[in-house]
Write a structure and sequence with these properties.
heterodimer, A: 291 residues, alpha/beta, Elongation Factor Tu (Ef-tu), domain 3, Rossmann fold, 3 domains, 7-stranded mixed beta sheet, 6-stranded antiparallel beta barrel, 15 strands, 15% helix, globular, B: 341 residues, TIM Barrel, 8-stranded parallel beta sheet, 4-stranded antiparallel beta sheet, 9 helices, 18% strand
Chain lengths: 291, 341
């Protein structure tokens, strides 16, 4: 479905650990077409706001019956701080759903879902979608500290295979998501690994998934000005099936990419083979079609 | 409406009676004055989901060059107070892709297209412009001369009158007689009227003002420049007063006879009909929305419709009648007087 731009009314805004859970009344956007991995872009502070740019967040859950869309967000800068000070009844302009969701193809998946920090936000609905299709799921949820973990209880309700790690050992095992990931993949003989979190984590997860023969689907977080494909800020070097690398937009060609096609070590650089290379238009023509 | 308003003595008129057409020179009149600014709406496909392109006065494309460009490394963008800095680096797929894949789609969707072109050398401007004559939907060319000239050690064309003159003359010659050529100027010059004069002498059919303002931000957590490209172009409402000043100065020079009069396209931080009117009063015959589209991709039609309402309230029957009104000296007692505070 095409994204909808709608004046969403805040139904609830509440702390969850170090983050905020934002529940918006947005029936126009909360349709059955929203898939795990889709994101929404919020404008903050009204038309005269000094923070102009949209803030993009992965959709935690969209409920067509209730007409609500939920996001989990962290206070990172001026915009998210301002958003955190909103109250129920306040209006925010929402564009959703945006981007490409996690793929659910390839038969019933046996999938490990890896979330770093608030990157766990889309994982519960993704697990539900995989289970509904007859698949199996395991979780590896990690964060710096216990209060930055998200979605552990939801994960435990969906799977007996839930691994929790923190950098400081304040919850679960001390370490990174890459620690328990091989065992988690082995436990369900994983066909797929879906991950969302910081770039170094996505790269490490992709390496381990590839070694285990599983597909790696990574939801990237790149700075965006718009979320709608206009600004060209959020590009990543992604190699197409033709072997050519292009700077693709995370917002329109992603945020979910096949992790093996992203040149993780080259993000934030201009690799020599990209200089002057065709860019912006993905290899598969239909990916550019915003329909 | 304030009783001190200059048009307070007139009766408002029906918005439906307002002529919103925007005359932009002898060969181009747009149905309304609202354009998109180059680099802020790609080649239109993404914006079309929110604003039907045929409703725009015109779509200005992302700048196209003779070849594909990967653009710069990330981070390419950072937010600043009431604005943003970007260093995208003219990422694009080149003129072949535009002509083959984008212009037919745009024409099919009824878009009027102002194609923004650039080159690293004067000849590259000409090479790109030559491909546009007779293409469907193309109503004009905007020469983005606010880009570095490789043949002149990277000095921006629009910072030098001679380089500006050469680039615009080359584009005019290559575009042929039917396509109007607008030159897009940078505000980062000592006297913008000098560059405007070089462009109009070279045959520019109009001028677009302004491109982004060169700026920079430093990340105080990493102690590094916020952009991979170090410096970037500042846009958004933060630069609006700079842009209004440029339009006003160039229009004033045209009124005084020191510059050949050509229509102006105003842009730089426009986010509402009120902002659009500010540019029109300064002398712009059309306006373009840029950074504001990132926040609100549905904005163009709101601005168009609100502008119509605003003109109706002021009993100004035609958009063209409002162009440059800020330059008029008070002539009658109904004009506002500044009352002491």
């Amino acid at each position: 479905m095409p994204p909808t731009q709608t004046a969403a009314v805040i139904r609830r805004i509440e702390p969850v650990g170090a983050y905020h859970r934002l529940t918006l009344d947005a029936p126009a956007a909360a349709t059955a077409d929203v898939r795990p991995g889709h994101f929404g872009a919020l404008a903050i502070g009204g038309p005269t706001s000094a923070t102009l740019l949209r803030r993009a967040f992965s959709i935690h859950r969209a409920d067509p019956t209730a007409g609500t869309v939920e996001f989990i967000f962290a206070e990172h800068g001026a915009g998210t701080r301002a958003l955190a000070r909103h109250h129920p009844g306040d209006t925010v302009d929402l564009i959703a759903p945006l981007g490409t969701p996690f793929p659910l193809d390839g038969g019933p998946q046996r999938a490990v879902l890896v979330g770093g920090g608030y990157g766990s936000a889309p994982m519960a609905t993704l697990a539900e979608a995989i289970l509904t299709r007859g698949g199996q799921v395991a979780f590896v949820l990690g964060a710096a500290t216990a209060d930055r973990l998200f979605g552990v209880a939801e994960a435990r309700a969906l799977s007996p295979h839930v691994h929790v790690v923190t950098d400081d050992g304040s919850a679960g095992e001390r370490g990174r998501v890459t620690g328990p990931l091989p065992a988690a993949m082995a436990a369900i003989d994983a066909t797929d690994v879906h991950s969302c979190g910081p770039m170094p984590m996505l790269k490490a997860v992709t390496t381990l998934a590839a070694a285990a023969g599983a597909r790696s689907h990574t939801a990237v977080e790149e700075a965006m000005a718009c979320g709608t494909g206009l600004c060209m800020s959020c590009v990543l070097p992604v190699t197409g099936p033709d072997g050519v690398t292009r700077f693709l937009r995370s917002c329109t060609s992603g945020p979910v990419f096949d992790g093996t096609t992203v040149r993780w070590d080259d993000t934030g650089t201009l690799p020599a083979d990209l200089e002057g290379a065709a860019a912006m238009t993905p290899y598969t023509p239909k990916e550019t079609d915003p329909a | 409406m304030s009783p001190r308003h200059p048009t307070a003595h007139r009766d408002p008129i029906d918005p439906a009676d307002i002529d919103m057409s925007a005359p932009l020179g002898a060969r181009l009149t747009l149905p309304n004055p609202v354009l998109t600014a180059s680099g802020c709406a790609g080649y239109g496909r993404e914006l079309h989901r929110f604003t039907p392109l045929h409703e725009l006065g015109a779509l200005t494309t992302k700048t196209v060059m003779p070849y594909a460009r990967s653009g710069r490394a990330t981070p390419r963008m950072t937010e600043t107070p009431s604005g943003m800095l970007n260093s995208i680096g003219l990422q694009g797929s080149g003129i072949d892709h535009l002509v083959t894949d984008e212009l037919p789609w745009l024409a099919e969707h009824g878009a009027r297209v102002l194609v923004s072109i650039a080159g690293e050398r004067t000849e590259e401007f000409a090479e790109t412009a030559a491909r546009l004559a007779g293409q469907p939907g193309v109503v004009g060319i905007e020469a983005n001369i606010s880009c570095p000239n490789v043949a002149d050690r990277g000095l921006v064309f629009a910072c030098d009158p001679d380089a500006s003159f050469a680039a615009v003359r080359a584009v005019k010659a290559a575009a042929g007689p039917d396509l109007p050529v607008y030159a897009k100027l940078t505000p980062d010059v000592t006297r913008i009227t000098d560059i405007a004069a070089a462009c109009t002498e070279a045959g520019a059919d109009g001028l677009s003002m302004i491109n982004t303002v060169l700026g920079m931000a430093i990340d105080t957590h990493t102690f590094r420049p916020s952009l991979a490209g170090i410096t970037g172009g500042l846009s958004g409402p933060a630069i609006r007063p700079v842009a209004v000043r440029c339009v006003y100065q160039v229009y004033a020079a045209m009124r005084s006879g020191t510059l050949r009069p050509v229509p102006l396209l105003g842009m730089g931080g426009i986010a509402s009909a009120r902002d659009a009117l500010e540019f029109i009063l300064a002398g712009a015959s059309g306006i373009a929305l840029g950074t504001a589209l990132f926040r609100d991709p549905s904005l163009p039609l709101k601005v168009r419709d609100d502008l119509r309402e605003t003109l109706a309230r002021h009993a100004i029957r035609s958009l063209a009648d409002a162009v440059g009104l800020a330059h008029h000296q008070p002539e009658d007692d109904s004009r506002p007087r500044r009352t002491p505070a």
